Amino acid sequence: MRYYMLAYEKFLREFLHSPDPEQIPKIRRETLTQIGFMQHERFVHFLVCILVGLAFFIALGLALYFRTVGLFLLAVILLGLLAPYLWHYYFLENTTQKMYVLYNQLSALEDGISYPNTSDEKLMKL
Fold first, then answer.
1. Among 63, 79, 92, 95, which residue has the fewest nearby CB atoms (within 10 Å)?
2. If you compute the radius of gyration of the chain from its CA atoms, what whole number of angstroms results?
3. What is the pTM for the complete model shown?
4. Are 35 and 100 in contact (CB under 8 A)?
């Protein structure tokens, strides 16, 4: 999904650099569809992060209570899974928010209106 999102973001940036006025409505509709896909992916990974984090804290609590090697090993394995899940969720969240800004830029081009958050430099650097 990382490559997919980065490729679409690159496509949008290139389009916005030299937009074709006839293609703007079509790209705008397609961007809304893509944002929906990205939001769904982000939500699924959010749930996975919550569940793995919950399992980690339960395993850690049980390991500290019962002091068994197996439970400590389980907690370490879950922590090893949780760290990449959090990193990937961070990427999904920030990229989805960048898509909102790019969509606002597309909307501003089509509508001829200066929408807020069309040049949010702090967000675009994430």
1. 79
2. 20
3. 0.87
4. yes
